[in-house]
Amino acid sequence: MSVNNTQVKHIAQLANIPVTEEESIDLADDFTETLKIVDQLKKAEVKKTEITHQVTGFKNVFREDIVKEEQSFTQEEALANAKATYKGYFVVPYILQNKDN
Amino acid sequence: MKLNELTLKESIDALDKKEITLEEIYKDLDQACQAKNEKLNIYLSINSKALIEAKKASKKPLRGLPIAVKDNFCTKGIVTTASSKVLDGFIPQYESTVTERLKASGGVIYGKTNMDAWAHGSSTETSDYGRTLNPRNSDHLPGGSSGGSAAAIAADFAVAAIGSETAGSIRQPAAWCGAVGFKPTYGRVSRFGVIAMASSTDSPGPIAKTVEDACILLNAFAGPDEKDGTSNKEKAPDFTSFLDQSIKGMKIGVIYQDVKEIKETNQKLLKELEILKELGATVELVQAMDPHQAIGVYTVVQRAEVSSNLARYDGIRYGGDRSNFGDEAKRRIMLGTFTLTKGYADRYYNLAQKVRTLYLNDYKELFKKYDVLVSPTSPSFAKEVGASFSSPMFGELEDMLLEASSITGLPGINVPFYRDEKTNLYLGANFIAPMWREDLVIKVADAFEKNTKWNSWRNK
Hints:
The complex is a heterodimer.
Chain A: H1 5-15, H2 21-38, H3 75-79, E1 85-86, E2 89-90
Antiparallel strand pairs in A: 1-2
Chain B: H1 8-16, H2 22-40, E1 43-46, H3 50-56, E2 66-70, H4 97-104, E3 108-113, H5 147-154, E4 160-165, H6 171-176, E5 180-183, E6 203-208, H7 211-221, E7 251-255, H8 263-272, H9 274-278, E8 282-286, H10 291-309, H11 327-340, H12 345-369, E9 372-376, H13 394-398, H14 403-407, E10 412-419, E11 426-432, H15 438-451
Parallel strand pairs in B: 2-3, 2-4, 7-8, 7-9
Antiparallel strand pairs in B: 1-3, 4-6, 5-6, 5-10, 9-11, 10-11
Helix pairs in contact in B: 10-11, 10-12
């Protein structure tokens, strides 16, 4: 199938990836080229075939719910790589805005 | 001869006999890297305390020897970027299981190696920190995504290296650089602390100078890990115990894909495989499923898992924001998002996972008749610098002979089987076996390596 740049812009929004108008045109071409190869899958006979999500066959892998101090970060460690912190918190972008603003 | 050119086994033996010292090894190694790293761009960073750490580890199994580590393994206190600007300057607060065990066994992280950004590629040309060049011939690419680790071996920038593979990322660069690359069974090695790409196929493993070296290194870090729910609970075997074994009576199937691009490589491989018959194995041509559909399965599954794994990079807790992603990462995240959206998930994602089942069934049938299967690792020799920009599917097409075994979790080893005298470039053979049967691929790959002339360290 082919993909147009309007679709690309929609996908960009869903994936939270900023793309320019020019990029969206190039990406549409790239996606069309890639999907042409992927579309060969349609030739496969899979009516009675089950889906494989993982190959190990392991099921319900649990561990004891115990806190291990040596595997836990201190507050300082957790914040060490953040670009912006405030009084020991991460600074995050606004999600809700005051309607007067 | 410079001491950095020794294999891991030779280095251990020579240290034990007190013929050489760690200082001498590190001196030669430092000199080699100072002379050539700027041009080849193999290491993104070099550990300035390596020799100090080495001396403290000299009594342990790996004797304090220098190991190159791909930059997608989190290393506490050492910058880890996965070659992406998004993680520019990121210093992990914790250690990956693989590098933790490496250090506990006396391996020293000599440096972090360049890779395709986020491991998205097969060229090491999509790195945000510039491409790596192939030490065998610097007009050519090293392959990828573990191109820096494979190049570190070819350039003798380490005694052994660690890479990771999702579909070809250990074996293909090893093939292009004339080295040994060992992808263990999915789940044999913990993924904890490896920057995630496609979680259902990511497999860390060694890139080394010989099969023996790869086994010694894998012994250091394979085995169960409670920090990774997908790791096998069974203890890993001693991989070196499968070396120097007879292959008499073993049944080896040669997967002969009738694809134009690999015709010449196939002919060369068939000629070299004659030696396995002389060693008592049976060698027969077999038909396997068309590799083209595996490209489709891998492309869809990998993009989907990438879009979900890379959703966490929002620049709040660490790293930069999402405008820092390079072109290849953007393409993969967005295509993955697309194939998972309503209306397309059935058409692409679910269909791909069904065809994945067909490949599992195909191998199940083939392994009823054969112990080990073999094919070329890559369709041809290392491509020239710049080649990866030719198609958005460059990596998938270069890895077409590896994708089927990757999406099915099988173990595989690349060993060199040909060298072109004019270009000094290599071809590699990929030996695969059923899940958890690393013993079978080690036996055959080791026998092949020791009875042919293509390993450049064994045949100096």
